[in-house]
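Title: Request for sanity check on Endoglucanase prediction

Description:
We are preparing a figure and want to confirm that the structure record we downloaded matches what your pipeline produces today. Could someone re-run it with the sequence below and paste the raw structure tokens into this thread? We only need the token string, no images.
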Amino acid sequence: MRTARRDTPESLVRLLTGLAALLGLVVVGALCPAAALARSPGPQAAGLHISDGRLLEGNGNDFVMRGVNHAHTWYPGETQSLADVKALGANTVRVVLSDGHRWSENSPEDVAAVVGQCKANRLICVLEVHDTTGYGEEAAAGTLDHAADYWIGLKEVLAGEEDYVIVNIGNEPWGNTDPAGWTEPTIAAVEKLRAAGFQHTIMVDAPNWGQDWQGVMRANARSVYDADPTGNLIFSIHMYSVYDTAQEITDYLNAFVDAGLPLLIGEFGGPADQWGDPDEDTMMATAEQLGLGYLAWSWSGNTDPVLDLALDFDPSRLSSWGERIFHGADGIAGTSKEATVFGGGDPDDTQAPTAPGAPSASAVTDTSVTLGWTAATDNVGVTGYDVVRVGDGAETEAAASTTNTATVTGLTAGTAYTFAVYARDAAGNRSARSATVDVTTDEAGGTPGTTCSVGYRVVGEWPGGFQGEIAVRNTGTAPVGPWTLAFSFADGQTITNMWGGTPTQNAGAVSVAPASYTSTIPAGGTVTLGFTGARGGTNTAPGVFSLNGTACATT
């Protein structure tokens, strides 16, 4: 949906960039006075927080964001994207939301569901309001003050999520017209959220459509940071075609590091556009060298598809830009470490697990296969496995699992495939690749007889709404797929959003069809559906479930 933008002529940009370089000593002096040190948070800090210019987890572990941006507000049905970027190695996702000023407002229920999905996929969630993009130059853009009011309206949803959520007040909240006007409303928005009781780490974007090519954020970062009484504030620079030389990139990033001020590359592009050719290699290498986070733009769905990391939201169809980000030098797969809040992990652990055993295939259908392998070992502990499809000298992520089995779906009938497995630990270390297995899918498939059990639970409730989870287990000896799950609500509850399946509801009766990645339930396997719903005063759990017309046991 967004491409690199700069309305100022290239010649003027280069002139002003040169002036900024000449004035570098003045800018750095404003950014980093000799007596200034980044504030350490007070004892009230909880969860993700800033200390000595670094982003830390609640346990004090240094956390470096490695991930992508995802255009949720324009593609609310693409919830599988979070699982897909996680399977490719990301530890963070920046989620596009709307406060209702320019696009349809994302409701508290929807935001709660997004946070739940991030947590389920073990991703740190950066939430941003996109309506502010280009304020002062873009007539349709909203203000940071309006965005702050939106966040305050979400306080009940976000309270207690400080370990998992960073609040990015507004995307690129000033254009190229009078960018000096950025500073005061940015400070005011930060102060407004703190006065409302927000303890989350807050992220602020730069002016000049995020690229700060006139140096306003760089020159005023200290005053903005000092306005936050908690010290839990991080700056975000967006790097597109303005940053087409190594010197520009290293100068900017090092200025913040030298000042002890926290910074990440909150968006960046690599493909050339009409304004220039961004130097993504230097961006990624310098971020890795300095221990700074980066979040590539963007997963899929751009108006200009040159910036799509995955084509049509399909993780098996990475673009050249996607391959660069995930599998290239200093890319996500090689540098990302999962947040320890999702299961611990020693930040000093640098030993990779052993390679898993060669996978074996079972339950082969026309569109899926179940793989199993001998577990890997690790000096601390294996936390998961990545299944890859191997062919033509390349690898494509096919599935992820926390056990030593996985079902790969979405395959083509009568087609030969080769698969292998990697193991990973909590510190993000990845093993050598296992031996491979060759599998040919069936020419045709079918749905066998069904035996099943269903577990239903309410994950959380709030006035007028709730989040639920349904675990559907195939207790038979053959895979089930495709499938339809049926049940009824007794108290007028309605499903407002679901991941893992597509619901159809008539009064209290609900019918759920699978998503592509849950279309087959392997023998002895389970698929989990998550959802948010609306409710009245009573929220009785459904008592009867059926799968493909067969009644299921309840657990």
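Thanks, this matches our download. The chain has twelve helices and 27 strands.
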